[in-house]
Amino acid sequence: MHDLAPQLFALLFAAAFLAGFIDSIAGGGGMITIPAMLIAGIPPLETLGTNKLQSLFGSGSASLAYARHGHVNLRKQLPMAVISALGAALGAILATVVPGDVLKAVLPFLLVAIALYFAVKPSLSDADKAQRMTPFLFSLTLVPAIGFYDGVFGPGTGSFFMLSFIALAGFGVLKATAHTKFLNFGSNIGALVVFLFYGAVLWKVGLLMGAGQFAGAQVGSRFAMKNGANIIKPLLVVTCIALAIRLLADPAHPLRIWLGW
User: Fold this and answer.
1) Among 117, 108, 95, 4, CA closest to 45
2) CA-to-CA distance for 17 and 38, rounded, in angstroms?
3) What's the pLDDT at 122?
4) Number of Cβ within a 10 Å radius of residue 254
5) Phi/psi zone of residue 28: left (φ > 0), alpha (ψ -120 to 50 degrees), beta?
6) Most Cβ neighbours (<10 Å): which of 10, 90, 159, 214?
7) Distance CA 190, CA 43 (A)
8) What's the CA gap between 18 and 33, in Å, rounded?
9) When comparing pLDDT for 119 and 53, which is higher?
10) What is the rounded CA–CA span in Å between residue 250 and residue 211?
11) Which long-range contacts (CB under 8 A, 24 or more apart) does 238-242 make?
């Protein structure tokens, strides 16, 4: 990708910084980085592979920031992150078998449902609630399932982890955000390994954007820790709605094709 103009590299870095900032708080950074890479002329497969590389820096940066301030114990959460990675690797391997069109068609409605949940539930705060699922069962069911989804498709993974931690694990909003980032880090690694095997990663672009992701995630995570649920909740709602609109605005979206829009 040495033929990319300097201004395109600057665009990709800026997009990654913004994505890292948003992703560290509410997820959904892929809706910024993936279109940016496609606009820059990077082929779709390389875009997906390179996106996993640069996302690794953002999720890793946010995980370290939250861990340093005591919002997540990375050592204790490591088994969950490994399970998430395995799920994502399996998802990436089976991406050609899984009905991707069905996932793409249903995803906008799932994102809107998540947005409504966070928008209308008044009791959401940074305080922990009662668990509805044991950590063991949570690790064996939802973690690999969401990791698998991240490997197959990806957009909205952070929102799904957030919803699961809050609704089922009883986590407060800030704690759920912190734990989501490390599981997302694991799923990024799992999918990246598969994309590396297929040679679908552009290292120069990925590392450049990774630097932007790292910086953006540092700023975003500090912003989230300072403001807690007051900023995480509304940004999560806006991000889910924006991602749903972004997906439905694509002329190639399966739902638009099926309906003839």
Assistant:
1) 95
2) 17
3) 66
4) 18
5) left
6) 159
7) 21
8) 9
9) 53
10) 29
11) 238/26, 239/22, 239/26, 239/27, 239/28, 239/159, 240/26, 240/28, 240/111, 240/112, 240/114, 240/115, 240/118, 240/156, 240/159, 241/111, 241/112, 241/115, 242/28, 242/31
Kindly state the average pLDDT of the residues 51-66.
Answer: 94
- Helix 229-249 and helix 100-120, axial crossing angle in degrees, nearest 10: 150
What does DSSP assign to residue 200? -
Q: How confident is the model at residue 156 (pLDDT cuts 50, 70, 90)?
A: confident
Per-residue pLDDT reduced to its tens digit, 209-254: 999 999 999 999 999 898 877 888 888 888 888 888 887 887 877 7
Which residue type, as a one-letter code, is found at position 33?
Answer: T
- The pLDDT value recorded for residue 103 is 66
The tokens 């969401």 sit on which residue?
146
Whether residue 144 is predicted with pLDDT greater than 90 in this model: the reply is yes
Residue closest to 26 by CA, chosen among 246, 173, 128: 173
What number is the average pLDDT over the span 41-63? 90
pLDDT, greater one: 104 or 242: 242
Give the separation between CA 205 and CA 9, rounded to whole angstroms. 8
Confidence of residue 100 (pLDDT cuts 50, 70, 90): low
- What value does the CA radius of gyration of the chain take, rounded to a whole number of Å? 17
Residue 96, token pair as written in the block: 């050609």
Q: Which two tokens stand for residue 73?
A: 């114990």
Residue 193: closest CA among 33, 85, 95:
85
Centre a 10 Å sphere on the Cβ of residue 233 and count the other Cβ atoms it contains.
19
Q: Name the amino acid, one letter, at 154.
A: G
